[in-house]
Structure formats: C-alpha cells, structure tokens
Amino acid sequence: MISKKFAGLLIIPAMLGSINASHAISNTASQILQCTLGTYLDITPQTSGAVTTTTITPDTGNLTAALVSKFKINLNTDSQDLYLQGKTTGAAGDVNALFRQGSQTYVVFSNTASGKVPTAAAIADCKTASPTATNNANAIAYPIASVTLDNGGSANYDNSKNQYNVDVNGGTTIATTTTGTTPYANTYSFQDNAGTYQAIMTLTSTSL
Fold first, then answer.
1. Which residues of the chain are under the pLDDT cut of 50?
2. CB 178 within 8 A of CB 195
3. What is the DSSP string of 125-184?
C-alpha cells in the first residue's frame, strides 16, 4: 500500500510534466505597439506679409495700399472644407460684409467712430447694383482682388451665403486675401465722415 506521503511525491512530477507540455518553447516573441493620432486643424492669422492698416485718400476714396489678410492652416488630413467670411459693424450690430455684383466680390468697411457707425440700410445700399452715395454714409465698399492658397486647393465664392468656400489640402497652407484700392462706385463720397473704417475677415471650419 502506497503511503500518502509517497503518493504526493508522484503527483508533483506529473503536474510539472503537464505544465511544460502546455507551453511550447519559443525563441521569438512579438507585441504590437500602437499610437493613435487624431485629426488636427489649426488656423492662425499671420502678420508677415499682411497689410492690415492703410489710409483712404480723402478726395477719391482710394486706398493708398491694398489691404491683405493672411491665415496659416496646418492640417493633417488630405483636405478640409473651410469658409472665408467677412463682417462689418452697423448701428444694429454685426452684418455680413461680403457681397457680389456681377463677377466681382466686394467687402464693406464701416466707420467705427463714436456716433458715426453706419445704419443697416446704409450698408445694404452699398451692396446694391446701383448704390446712392447719399444713402450709404459711413459705409464704403472695396473689391476683393484675389483669394489665393499657396498649397493648392480652391476658393470659390458662394452667392447664396456670401462667403468663400475654401478647400485646403493637407499640410501647411497660407491663405491670402487682397483687396483692390478703388471703391465700388457711389459708395464713397463726402457723406462719409472722417474716422477708421473696418471690416473683419475670418477663416473658419463653420459655415454661415
């Protein structure tokens, strides 16, 4: 009769043999390491090359230099839809500054001097096919000469929303908007008071 002590000694080698049999010996092992990169979009205004201030020649309304806005876009996807929008301030608040007549896009600048902010009606008159100088005091429209992207893509004006639909490629893109210097006919006159005239250009991923 096998003693209990001796029986226990016999079981241990059997257990060890079972454990060894369940794990085949390997000289190589691998593990997958992964990192997830999320979508990245960053839009920043650029000062280099931008022209954000100029003067208006009092007798003609012409700008002494074209105004230039510049945005830098960093994008890590193949492409992205963005929207270039303009706003200006009327007596009732901010309104869309961009409009188109024929094939030309314009942007309205509003007087920011205290008590000289144009009415909504004055801004609206600037946008018509035949503006009347006496009806658009303190609002002056200037043409958009160009919207360019240095990394390919496209910028097309959307008449229904009065904004540019901008398609940028992945990587880094500089988007440049340049105005003309001659005001839209009959939007400048001596009805326009002295002061600073302003429009704000915004490049965003949110459509109007």
1. 6
2. no
3. HHTSSS--GGGSTTEEEEEEEEEEEBTB-EEEEETTTTEEEEEEEEEEEEEEEEE-SSPP
Q: How many CB atoms lie within 10 A of CB 196?
A: 13
- 90 and 120 Cβ atoms separated by less than 8 Å: yes
**9-13-18 Cα angle (round to 5):** 140
Cβ contact 141:106 at 8 Å: yes
pLDDT digits (tens, 9 = 90+) for 60-90: 999 999 999 999 999 999 999 999 999 999 9
pLDDT value for 82:
98
- What backbone torsions phi and psi does residue 170 show, to the nearest 5 degrees? -65, 160
Q: Alpha helix locations (H) across the chain? A: 4-22, 120-126
Q: What is the pLDDT of residue 24?
A: 81
Number of H helices, E strands in the chain: 2, 10
How far, in Å, CA of 57 to CA of 8, rounded?
107
What is the Cα–Cα distance from 137 to 111, expressed in whole angstroms?
Answer: 9
CB contact at 8 A, 165 and 4: no
